[in-house]
Hints:
This protein is α/β, with parallel strands linked by helices. It has two domains: 165 residues, Rossmann fold (3-Layer(aba) Sandwich), CATH 3.40.50.10950; 140 residues, Rossmann fold. The chain is built from 13 helices and eleven strands. The strands form two sheets. Strands 8-7-9-6-5-10 form a six-stranded mixed sheet, sandwiched between helices. Strands 3-2-1-4-11 form a five-stranded parallel sheet, sandwiched between helices. The chain is globular and about 65 Å long. The chain starts with a helix and ends with a helix.
Amino acid sequence: MAFIDKIKQQAKQDKKRIVLPETMDKRTYEAAEKILKEGIADIILIGRPEDIKKNSEGFDISGAVCVDPFTDPNRQKYIDKFVELRAKKGMTPEKAEEQMTSDYMYYACLMCKCGDADGAVSGACHSTGNTIRPALQLLKTKPGIHSVSGFFLMEVPDCEYGDNGLFVFADCAVNTDFDSAKLAEIAGLSAESFRMLTGDEPKVAMLSYSSKGSAKHDDVTKVADAVKIAHEQYPDLKLDGELQLDAALVPSVGAAKAPGSEVAGHANTLVFPSLEAGNIGYKLVQRLAKANAYGPVLQGLAMPVNDLSRGCFADDIVGVVAITAVQAQANK
């Protein structure tokens, strides 16, 4: 059974309410039809009835809950909550109303905040920033977490490395500036995500172009310092670095470059030293190894909100909704 099929089965065990706010995109309706047919989650669509009717033509979304942000009975509750959360930033009822009805992702996050939904998925036709900004403003991060990061769940066919070809790659989507403390936090969150989604033990490699001091540079020191911080914060976590990619994945190379390491040669959770490295890395594996890349999945938020690639297919939306539902199950 493919990994995503296992996630779908898990999502079905305790169905969650997931909001899809991008009702201007046909892929949303194609995905909603599949999700409802398979029983993966309860779907909430946000939009004017006439727009949903027009854009969903040809798809069976009769099982979805459609919320009109202009007539919804909960509208005033969401306006009040928006003002409460953003009053110090100058939010007024008039501004809240305009923002909610012009950008449905804000409406989706307010539904989550008020307990009327369990998660949201967006990004098929909006940027990562447009997806994350409302979530950060309204849902905030989990207690003790300083920043949100994004990972891809990579499923590589016919692969002997990682967890039978299954990996978490982070951060590939969110943070543009990494310091050692942020890298360490990303490592801890990524390990938690790997364990939650796969049920297996994470083995975290902090990647670099150096292995155990083989090169000297501030970029290498940053990763080495992140390893020290992570060991202090997560003493029970199998984590090592700095490691070159081959040392992280290939047992013979890991044994040569990092002898005695529990992680070298066996890593399944890869923490990249920069956003550009992570983003390039996941796309290389996706395209050249024909891997399934699910995400970017966001971690560190108080409630599950996830992003999509603007080049995604409907099946990608289905997969990310299933992952979001499983995150919501774990978020109790």
